[in-house]
Amino acid sequence: MANERLRAALLEKGVSVTELAEAIGVDPKTVERWITKGRALSRLSGRTTTTRSV
Predict the structure, then answer these.
(1) What InterPro entries has UniProt attached to this entry (predicted)?
(2) pLDDT tens digit sequence for 2-46
(3) Cβ–Cβ under 8 Å, residues 14 and 45
(4) Is 12 in contact with 23 (CB distance < 8 Å)?
């Protein structure tokens, strides 16, 4: 199941997959997997509060 909330948030904010990946310190392919395959973001649970404005 795709992660439509993440995709919508990126579009709304005008943030690219690459920009998000760089901001949170992961590979852009990882972000793509989160979006297309609905993979969990659990690895980042401790860092998400610092990236909410992205």
Answers:
(1) Cro/C1-type_HTH, Lambda_DNA-bd_dom_sf
(2) 789 999 999 999 999 999 999 999 999 999 999 998 876 655 555
(3) no
(4) no
Two structure tokens written together for 33: 């997997």
Give dist(CA 19, CA 42) in Å, integer.
19
C-alpha to C-alpha distance for 47 and 14, rounded to whole angstroms: 21
User: Distance from CA of residue 9 to its chain's centroid?
Assistant: 9
Residue type, 48: T
- For 15: left if phi > 0, alpha if psi spans -120 to 50, otherwise beta; the answer is beta
| Alpha-carbon span 50 to 23, nearest angstrom | 10
Answering whether pTM is above 0.70, one says no
